[in-house]
Amino acid sequence: MSLVEDFNSYRTKMNDRIMSSDNLIIKRLFNLDTNCYSEGHLNEATKEMLGLACSMVLRCDDCVKYHLGKCKELGVTEPQIQEVFSIATLIGGSIVIPHLRRAVEYWDELSK
């Protein structure tokens, strides 16, 4: 399996497991997350790029992968992604560089 398939498979499996617990608070948080990224005053792609930048600064590799996948689905281009990478690395500082490496690797995999 590829890096992308592994991530998506694990994410789906565990989300299904989490949702099966029927925890109302968790369900509400998941719903809030879904609704936050839907079309509004900002388009979905812009919101995903914001999520990507924030996730890189917060150093959450799973979140970075998720937002990269959504960006790819929404037609975000390589130059746009590179600008997001630049902003996130500038804001987060050198500690973001390892996450940048993994983000570039994942984007490359998505782009195959």
From TrEMBL:
Pfam families assigned to the protein according to its UniProt record, in alphabetical order: CMD (PF02627)
Domain Carboxymuconolactone decarboxylase-like: 28-105
Stretches assigned to coiled coil: none
Signal peptide: none
UniProt entry keywords in alphabetical sequence: Oxidoreductase, Peroxidase
Superkingdom of origin organism: Bacteria
InterPro entries: AhpD-like (IPR029032), AhpD_core (IPR004675), CMD-like (IPR003779)
GO molecular function: peroxiredoxin activity
The protein's name in its UniProt record: AhpD family alkylhydroperoxidase
Organism of provenance: Runella defluvii
